[in-house]
Specification:
Shape of chain B: globular
CATH topology of the largest domain in chain A: Rossmann fold
Radius of gyration of chain B: 23 Å
CATH class of the largest domain in chain A: Alpha Beta
Oligomer: heterodimer
CATH superfamily of the domain at 48-231 in chain B: MetI-like
Order of helices and strands of chain B: HHHHHHHHHHH
Number of strands of chain B: 0
CATH architecture of the domain at 48-231 in chain B: Orthogonal Bundle
Shape of chain A: globular
Strand content of chain B: under 5%
Structural class of chain B: mainly alpha
Distance between the termini of chain A: 41 Å
Order of helices and strands of chain A: EEEHEEEHHHEHEHEEHHEEEEEEEEEE
Amino acid sequence: MAVAPHKPRPNPNQNVFAPWDDPDAVPLIRFKNVSKRFGDFTAIDDLTLDIYEREFFALLGPSGCGKTTMMRMLAGFERATEGTITLGGQDMGGIPPNERPVNMMFQSYALFPHLSVWDNIAFGLKRDKLPKDKIEARVSEMLRLTRLEQFAKRKPHQISGGQRQRVALARALAKAPKLLLLDEPLGALDRKLREETQFELMDIQEKTGTTFVIVTHDQEEAMTVASRIAVMDHGKIIQVDTPARVYEQPSSVYVADFIGDVNLIEGVYTRPTPERGEIAYAEGEPPIAVDPVDGITIGTRVTYAIRPEKIRVSREEPDDRANRAFGKIIDIGYLGNTSTYHVELSTGQMVKAAMTNASRIARREFTWDDEVWLSWRETAGVVLAK
Amino acid sequence: MRKLSWFNLTSLTFGFAFLYLPMIVLVVYSFNSNKLVTVWAGFSTKWYGELFRNEAMMDAAWVTIRVALASSTLATVLGTLAAYVLVRGGRFHGRTLFSGMLYAPLVMPDVILGLSLLLLFIAIGLDRGLLTIILAHTTFSMAYVAVVVTSRLVAFDRSLEEAALDLGCTRFEAFRLVTLPIIAPAVISGWLLGFTLSLDDLVIASFTSGPSSTTLPIKIFSAVRLGVSPEINALSAILIGIVSVGVITASLISKRAIAKRIADENRATP
């Protein structure tokens, strides 16, 4: 197994790595009202974003959402149509890729096929006209960091996909850039290798202290590696937050639906008392009790988002939870560690509930067509107005 | 090995006979001791000796080689640059027109190309000689080089160049250090193609050559009009030899390179 990552976790007793919450912190990268148009197509639409030093920042979104364009603007391959991008206070507009303290790891790795692994890693250092012994020392360091020592003399087509990925990383890191860009870096690897490599990436990011910006469409990957995630859609940023907040406190239906599995229930928001909010979602059913939300007008239509693992399935009617619903199990998705139950409520609504399989499958409690109770707390879900 | 059916065997024999019998006859008769080309009178290599003592023929050979070397080299440089700009230059104004015009010499009849070049050289007052043949051959070889290099560049992963820029190369360095080494096989075969085309061109060379400079094809053609001499047979046999050696070597090299690559890739499995 891979070693547990030393990822900054919120801890009230320590100095938490969260420069985005510090009003005095100066961001390394600033996108200010940046737009990018290709002819009639708007790839980036009036976007403003700050990225801080030492961050592992993920740009997440479906293909065509503009995440790759943002990365290419940081690398210098594209110029913003409007707005400014600054890096360490310096305006990057008009600075060619070869003069930026930014390096990129390409999706296809883009290793030079006619050069050995060693020469690939040394390529950028040689362009800086460094003395020979310095280049040799730096290349050895990079080979050690990426555990490629015994492959130094091989050509890219003589090594495996995982090794190629590490060569690409070593080559991009060799010049010790202020900012490293990773374009879908693990897309070509199989699942197991990808998971291991995610932890390796975090480890290397931690060791080198480089700011990483990763582009990915894989939400699990973004959740695992990133300190913050920007969820993008149609050239706009929908939400920028830590993985936990993006998952637990999505700001919109789009984010809730894009990240992870979710039940979306539409209803009308009311607030019978200042301490109690309710969502009426079906005729004849008791409303869903929620924590009151300021800023939502009483009587507006809202979407209630609740994650399947926040819902408990039980045979008897529970009395310790604010929300209850009765239904029948239609389908069971068995995933090994958890099972997802698709439960049809008496209103016809389908709700997904996930339970951990703490006991062996032979003694599983519920099966198809069982009538069960679903229950969850008033704090379990999120009320979304958009 | 699978045994060939009689039908396959027959068609193979006839096919190859059709292609190669004339050449075999030519090579065999180049060793004929008789002065009459078509009457066999015993084995001899005397016509080869005669050939090397024939100064006019040797001069023509020397002119041909110089023209072929110079024009194919010039055409390779220009053709590669043209291909690079057409593939990498983005959609600049007049791109379609340019690429169409670059390929025009490929389909233009040689007579027209030769005549137009002749008129041009007369118009600008350039005396016909070695230089004009080189320029004329460069013109059409360049188109062939551009076609070969373009097909390689289109298949070329563009992110390799971007990676070079990203790692600190200027555009020119990226071309010299990354693009050129990778497209080198196409550039070399473009050069070889240009060399061969120049070597056997008769029509364009006859329009653009002057009295001081005659290429080998022109020489052979005019000699043959006075009757086929055994010397020409010897010369043709030498040319066949040179071309065969070149083609076989080139194909062996590329075959070995492919075999090595496959072996390497098998070895790379983790």
